[in-house]
Design goal:
The protein has 5 helices and 11 strands. It has 200 residues and is α+β, with helices and mostly antiparallel strands. Strands 2-3-6-4-5 form a 5-stranded antiparallel sheet, with helices on both faces. A 4-stranded antiparallel sheet has the order 9-10-8-11, with helices on one face. Strands 1-7 form a two-stranded antiparallel sheet. Belongs to the IMPACT family.
């Protein structure tokens, strides 16, 4: 079971591919929601008022993946799918790739379009800062203050990341751990008396 995924760190600088006088500008953006897709498209539309097509593909999610492609007026599957193919090829998620086309007066044909959109997407991803991240699972534990030392010892030993904590007579700690360690962590806390653990 893998508990890592690849994504991009920040929006890439635009790359340019010229094909028979048409210009294909390629961009990548890190995204977490479909709303981010709309925002980034609006930015590009403001930047390229003369462009006729804003074709894109994106993939979201780390365990369950969700993707969408858009040909934006180009012939069916000649733009969005070749772009998505490159997202798959680079194995990235939570990533949007947009190719902005400014028509140069010469038709490229479906084969030419597929090739141009694929190449521009590849160049854009090549130009991106891709990182590997671990999938985190979040838990909340509740316990009495007297058990604090026991709990903190496990948190330290198992390298758990504390997200938030409330310390009172009864304490509550929110922490995260790597997905592959989640079951083991639950077992450890469930075997301790007077400590409640639940996944968030």
């Amino acid at each position: 079971m893998t508990d890592t995924y690849k994504t991009i760190v920040s929006p890439s600088k635009g790359v340019l591919l010229k094909e028979k006088n048409s210009k294909f500008f390629g961009y990548t953006f890190p995204i977490t929601t479909e709303e981010d897709v709309k925002k980034n498209l609006e930015l590009l539309k403001a930047e390229h008022p003369a462009a006729g097509h804003f074709c894109y593909a994106f993939q979201l999610g780390t365990t369950k993946k969700h993707y969408r492609t858009n040909d934006d007026g180009e012939p069916n599957n000649s733009a969005g799918l070749p772009i998505y193919g490159q997202i798959q090829s680079y194995g990235v998620t939570n990533t949007l790739v947009v190719i902005v086309r400014i028509y140069g007066g010469t038709k490229l044909g479906v084969g030419g379009l597929i090739s141009a959109y694929k190449t521009a997407a590849q160049m854009a991803l090549e130009n991106s800062d891709i990182v590997e991240r671990t999938i985190a699972i979040y838990f909340q534990i509740n316990f009495d203050y007297k058990n604090m030392n026991k709990v903190m010892r496990i948190i330290k030993e198992k390298n758990l990341e504390i997200v938030s904590q409330k310390m009172d007579e009864t304490c509550e700690i929110l922490f995260s751990t790597r997905k592959k360690n989640a079951e083991m962590i639950v077992d450890i806390f469930e075997n301790l008396f007077e400590i409640e653990i639940k996944k968030i």
